[in-house]
Amino acid sequence: MTNPVTVEAAATSPAPEAPPALEAARPIEGRSPGQIAWLRLRRDKAAMASAAVIGLLILVAIAAPLLTALNGHGPNEFHQEALNTELGGIPKGRFGGISSEFWLGVEPGTGRDVFSRIVYGARISLVVATLATLVAVGVGTVVGVTAGYFGGWVDQTSSRTMDVILAFQQLLFAIALVAVADQIPRTLLIVLVIGFLNWPYIGRIVRGQTLSLREREFVEAARSLGAGHAHIIFKQLLPNLAAPILVYSTMIIPANILFEAAMSFLGVGVKPPTPSWGQMLSNAVSWYSTDPVYVAVPGLALFVTVLAFNLLGDGLRDALDPRGGR
Predict the structure, then answer these.
(1) If you count Cβ atoms within 10 Å of the first and of the last residue's Cβ in the chain, which end, N or C, has fewer?
(2) What angle do CA 63, 67, 70 make, to 5 degrees?
(3) Cβ within 8 Å of residue 275, ≥6 positions away
(4) Model confidence at 138, in pLDDT bands (50, 70, 90)?
(5) 64-88 confidence digits (pLDDT tens)
(6) Residue 10 — pLDDT band, cuts 50, 70, 90?
(7) Adjacent-strand bridge partners of 91
């Protein structure tokens, strides 16, 4: 005879859990390489903080006219009242003349507002470095892929050309190029010079990666199916080269920022009175012993910008590395 208590308990008891075999049989949600890279990058606090700093710098450069309007001083305005003419053009007060009117002080001798020139100088540094990087990446990618894919005399000619350009001392070569092509607008000329001097670096990287990829099975399969050279290069090789190109581009931007600053420091960069961080450092050389603020402000702007790009580049490299942990 069936116990009624047992029947009632069986009716009200919860359904048994699925066995582990059924749990394992459930489909696993996949993630694309882009999603995996983004998850890795989000965990890198230094890279995310650097990205925020770079975003802020870009906003500052874009909003430069608005920021200087709040400050009330243009980047090239001369403020005689802010200088102590009895002491040879040194700004009144300590710390470079910093006050409620001049937020970061004024330049000695010129009497220009430092805050306005720092903000507009960010435009010059970011625009020149970004455009020069685009030139270097574009030329280097085309030459590197062509040399690595076709090989033979194409590879030999391209490789020897890169060796010749890399044999020059970059800064001296840049000064010589600027001196002989002074009829070209200076900013455009600097972009072309820096891009021309940097494309062999990325060209070598892309060439080496292409030499490795062209022997892979997916390229051989595309050839066996009758794919042409253009299809293999644009559909098979370039997508696999995107990650190293992106990482190296992020790394080369800070180098180009420093290169532009060095040229401006030596007097062959953008023409005065166009604001440039390197030019501000050059003007501060004669006054740093009077007040180190003259060197500290543009120097700190360069340091923070270059450090942010380098940390972001390191984070992208680790996030895009397929051998990294998931």
Answers:
(1) N
(2) 145
(3) 75, 76, 116, 117, 118, 120, 121, 123, 124
(4) very high
(5) 999 888 888 888 887 777 777 655 6
(6) very low
(7) 83
Q: Which one, of 149, 143, 141, 147, lies nearest residue 231 by Cα?
A: 149
The Cα–Cα gap between 280 and 265 comes to: 8
pLDDT tens for each residue of 200-253? 999 999 999 999 888 888 888 988 888 888 989 988 899 889 888 998 888 899
pLDDT tens string 291-324: 788 888 899 999 999 999 999 999 988 888 766 5
Q: How far is C-alpha 66 from the chain's CA centre? A: 25
Say how far apart CA 148 and CA 143 lie, in whole Å: 8
Is the four-CA dihedral 178, 184, 186, 190 of positive or negative sign? negative
CA atoms within 13 A on the CB side of 203: 26
The three-state secondary structure class of 152 is: helix
As a whole number of angstroms, the distance between CA 29 and CA 41 comes to 20
Coil, strand, or helix at residue 113? strand
H-state helical runs in 100-214: 114-150, 152-167, 170-180, 186-213
The SS3 assignment for 84 reads: strand
Cα separation, 105 vs 83, whole angstroms: 10
Q: Residue 137: is its pLDDT beyond 80?
A: yes
Q: In this structure, what are the phi and psi dihedrals at residue 124, rounded to the nearest 5 degrees?
A: -60, -50
